[in-house]
Design goal:
Elements lengths: L4 H37 L2 H20 L5 H22 L1
Helix pairs in contact: 1-2, 2-3
Length: 91
């Protein structure tokens, strides 16, 4: 445990940031899972809505520095590609 006052404060700040990052990442995982289940069940209209929500949340997380900007873009690209191939195969 730290003895210096500023080090103690940094520990508190880090714990707060870690908790926030965990919450946001778990939220993202839930959104991506909802998208995946919509694709697997073949419900493409719901999948389109989930994709919009997923993109919004991924971009927001990237802007806050929780995930890297390129990682967010890569995930959005892969999700879009997955939805497009599902639409192509269904129709």
């Amino acid at each position: 445990m730290a003895n210096i006052k500023s080090a103690k404060k940094r520990i508190l700040v880090i714990n707060k940031k870690t908790a926030r990052n965990r919450r946001v990442k778990n939220h993202l995982k839930a959104i991506l899972k909802n998208f995946e289940t919509a694709i697997e069940t073949g419900n493409l209209e719901v999948a389109k809505e989930k994709l919009v929500l997923a993109e919004k949340e991924l971009r927001k997380a990237a802007s806050k520095g929780i995930i890297h900007k390129n990682a967010a873009s890569r995930k959005v690209s892969r999700l879009t590609k997955r939805l497009n191939s599902a639409v192509k195969n269904a129709g």
